[in-house]
Every structure is written in C-alpha cells, then in structure tokens.
Input
Amino acid sequence: MRYFEDFKVGETIELGSRTINEEEIITFAQQFDPQPFHLDKEKARVSIFGTLVASGWHTGSIFMRLMVDSLLKDSAAQASPGIDQLRWVRPVKPGDTLSVRLKVLRTRLSGSRPNTGIVYSLCEMVNQHGELVMRMEFPTFYGLRPEEEAGAILTGA
Output
C-alpha cells in the first residue's frame, strides 16, 4: 500500500504500456467522440491527420487505466479535483504502443482535509518511437499512513 508519505518529489514512476488497435479506436469513437477521423479510414485519409487517429479522450482513458493498474489500486488514493493542464501533442495511430511515466512535482498536506496529502504530478505518454503524445499535470489526494502502521515502521515491527 502506498500512502502520501511514500511519494518523493522528483520521483518517476513507470505506469506501463499498451498497444492500441484500429478496432478499439473506432469503438471508443462510436460511443464518445464520433468525429470522421476517429471512425472512418477513408474520411481520415483526407483529414489533417492523413490516417485514422485515436480520440484524445481515448488516449487519456488509456493513461487512466494504466495509472489505476500500476499505482492507484494499491495506494491510499482518494480522488483528484481535476486536471491543471492537458495537451495532446501528437496523434495516436493504430499500432502505436503507448508508455506512461509519472513524475512527482511537489507534495503538501491538505489544509482542509485531515489525514490527507496532495501529490502534484506530471504525466507523460510516449509512443514506441519515444515521441511525446500526451502531457498532463494534475493533483491527487492520498491518505496519510495510519498511525499504527507508521509506528510499526519506526519500531521495525
């Protein structure tokens, strides 16, 4: 279990990777972002992208899944109040393998929520060529280590 105290400024956490395919790009777009360059290869070919591309929201959803699987599910994460900055830097295409790393920018205790700290993070998602495709900065609330656990760590129990 990872608590607020376990995050160190400057630390980088690798969140894993995932390869995206044409079928999932189209399926996501049909439900959430039905623009032609996400849905139709022929229409995408004459778009500014020249090929089918994933929705930025799809890219963000892949990030979220990787973050949950690699970090949040085994942490004292409570919630996030939102995203401070989000940039889709480069289009994501079928066959791209997306990898995510999270860097801890700063931390602080919450002034209004007892037993809670805030971790401010920078997320960078790159494709298989190491090219940046998404950049995001955001805070996350994490619970502090329970006193009984903190005491056990100090005493070596």
Summary: The chain has one domain: 4-155. The two ends are 17 Å apart (CA to CA). Residues 56-70 form the longest helix (15 residues).
